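Protein entry
_____________
===
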Amino acid sequence: MDQVRKALARAGVDEVVFAAEIRPTGRTTLRLTRYGPAVETAFGRPDLGVLLLVDGALPEPWRRLPDPRAGAGPAPSADPELLERTLRERLPDATAGATDEQIAAAGARLGVALPEELEVLYRMAPGHRHRGDWRDAYGLVGCDLFTLDQLYVVDGASRSPRWAFAATQTAVTRPDAAVQALAGSPGWIAFGDNGGGDRLAVDVTPGPSGHSGQIILIDHEKSFGAELVADSLTDLALGRLRKEHPDPPADRLPTAAVAVAAVGGGSGAFATVRDAAHPALEVLSLGDGDGDRDGTRFSLAPLTGLPRLRTLTARPGTLADPLELAGLTGLEFLELGPREWRALLDAGAVPRTLSAAAVTPYGDEDPASVVEIANELLALWDRPRIVQAMLEGDLGPVAQRPTTTS
């Protein structure tokens, strides 16, 4: 393996997947696979992972924009005058902060007008970090405050989702939620850091029970959602933080049952595809439940015409006819076994609406054939191919029985 590592270093390759078979005689076969930029590899496993068919594409929940809420106003606790007095007491010797022109320019850059409380904050705080009195601004509202020109809007692309996880997620906002279930929003204006990498933002696109200008926390370890911290910037400055639990995730909502469904595969799953079919269905998983490759096979006909269905994962051997996928015109992610993909490729019926895909072997397929299928899929989108190399040699009688490692 040291020889392999040195070869990788010479080639400038950061990582490679390998599988080695060492026979009792010492005859050895080493297969090396370099996935390249069009494959999102699986953490901790040598699985093929997810094929990124469209460069930079995001799953639908990460592209989703907030629902407009006409008439959503500031919280009763929002008090710009009290906020200004509080900040003046904390920075009695500070020089003048941002001007109205600078604040307006920041809003124009961001594409959203700064809420009144945020304007008050930056009129009091220095406008640039090189100003000597910026060191005093940390304690203004209890966070590491960004300068005016560092403000930014949190969007879905900045949350870096992995398709293997994100393709099966939904964005369902509770009717009583304070924060909309989103990855990002044009109305999430990040203005500070809590010291641990999490962002604090003003939210001007609140949920049904929220307030415009509320303060939310965007966890750097999560790629979706945000947590309500305070009803207003005034509350944040005065330490009046929300103590209640955050809004539950979408997969715990009763309404999520029609957005995400499983057929077969254990308790809680629907018995048939027809039972799971619903106009709100976004994600469907098919499994045979008993691990039998020749078990139940499902027809996709009841799914034809569903307006929101975007993700389908099907365990190998569970589709009655893979060509029925032609009736699913909105798929952006598809996970199938090698035989199902081969049927689609041979028929020229791979859905061209896909942004990402996965080839999941049942367990006994030749890895080379799986990579061959993956490369055919990548070729349809003119994406970089997976590269394989096979090395064979003799290590001498180093083992008593065949050994496979990866």
